[in-house]
Structures are given as structure tokens and as C-alpha cells.
């Protein structure tokens, strides 16, 4: 894959990933105010370790943050295994694992988070987290699995299933979640070589981003479209070259 396309795809990937965390959890890039909000919770070993991990993460000590949050979870074994603070730690760990390339570990954390939000009946958060999960599978090259999570169908032009990320966002009028799901779906289809479908996906993302006037996602959708058209053009060029070679061979 050409460097420029890889770079733009990474920007879209990280942008949509950040979207999920903006709306569902405290951001890992929070400043002192965000840390203060966490500190208002009951003072405990878990809370102190969460704060320490956030500071390490902000200082770019990702491995240190991971160790800190792992210790936080271990120290809370006798507490509420489904507390909101514990779930935030799982999300933090997922983001940190992604930073160091441990994608399977990141997915494992998200599975616990998704199960929690299903249990607490928070469908919008479920939709956003499974969009993030799909992005991670796609980063592993498991694009069909990503498509299945995002829409629930591997066949083009079929409606998405009710428990898919895209349908959850639609059903609950979650425009930002829908933008992220469409963009992630477009990436997955493009990386499978399904360029026409990817174009439809990015157009869907662009339409919603424009309607809600979200400039970051307008740009991401347009970049996705541009890269998909470029990939489609190269694919058509290769086909034309192959057809020409076949024709020359028959004429010889």
C-alpha cells in the first residue's frame, strides 16, 4: 500500500477511534481538570492508580501506564468488578495496548467493556465501542470480520442487522457514532478491494458529517473518498494492462 494512502488511512482510523472515546469515556489526553474529576470519586487504591496511569500516559510512558492500570485492576479484585471506574480503566488499557501494537490485548479489554454496556443497557456506548472493536480487527487484516461487526452483512447492498454498530447508531439517532461506523466500514471495504461499496460508505459518512457540520469528519470522509478513487483507478489501470497483454499474446 503506498505510503500516502497508509498515512491518510491511519489518520482516519485514529480520528474515528478518538470519537468513540470522546463520547463514551474520559479521554486519555485529559488535562488536570479531567484528572480532578476522577479524583472526586471515593479515594481508593484503584483511583490513585488510575490517576498515576493517566499521568504516565500523558508523559508518553505507555508501558508504565499499562503496568499501572494492570495493577489497578488487580488491586480491585475484591471490589465491584463492573464499576464505572473499572470499565474506564479497561478502555484506557485498550488504548494503551493499541499504542504499543498489542491489538489482541486491546480487543480483549473492549470485549469486557461492550459486555458491561450491554448489561447496563447503554446502546449508544455499545455501538461506539463495537465500532472501535471493528477498527481493531481491520488493523489486523480481518476486514470481513470488521464489516460483519459494523453492518452484520458480508454481502453488498443488504441491510445492516439490528445489533450492528451502524444500525445501533441509526436507531438511536447517534449521528457521530454513525459517521464513525460509516467511515470504518468504508476503510474495511476499501482494504478488501471493494471500491464501489467503499465509495458508498464514505459518501454516507460525508453526508452526515456535513449535515452536523463536523469539519474533522468532513475532511476524513473526503480523504477516504479520494484514496478509494485512487485505488479504484489503479485497479482499473492494472486490468487494462492485463487485458492488453492478453490481446498481444493472442496476436503473436
The largest sheet is: none
Helix content, binned percent: over 70%
Number of alpha- plus pi-helical segments:
12
Based on DSSP secondary structure assignment, what is the total number of beta strands?
Answer: 0
Q: What's the CATH first level?
A: Mainly Alpha
Strand-pairing-aware structural class: mainly alpha
β-sheet strand percentage: under 5%
- In the predicted model, the low-confidence regions spanning at least 5 consecutive residues are 1-43
Q: Please, how many domains? A: 1
Mean pLDDT: 80
Order of helices and strands: HHHHHHHHHHHH
Shape field: globular
The CATH superfamily is known as Tetratricopeptide repeat domain
Do you know the CATH topology?
Serine Threonine Protein Phosphatase 5, Tetratricopeptide repeat
Overview of this structure, please?
It is a single chain. This protein has one domain: Serine Threonine Protein Phosphatase 5, Tetratricopeptide repeat, CATH 1.25.40.10. The chain starts with a helix and ends with a helix. 36% of the residues are buried. Mean pLDDT is 80; it is low at 1-43. By secondary structure, it is an all-alpha fold. α6 (103-119) packs antiparallel against α7, α10 packs parallel to α12 and α11 runs antiparallel to α12 (215-251). The protein is built from 12 helices and no strands.
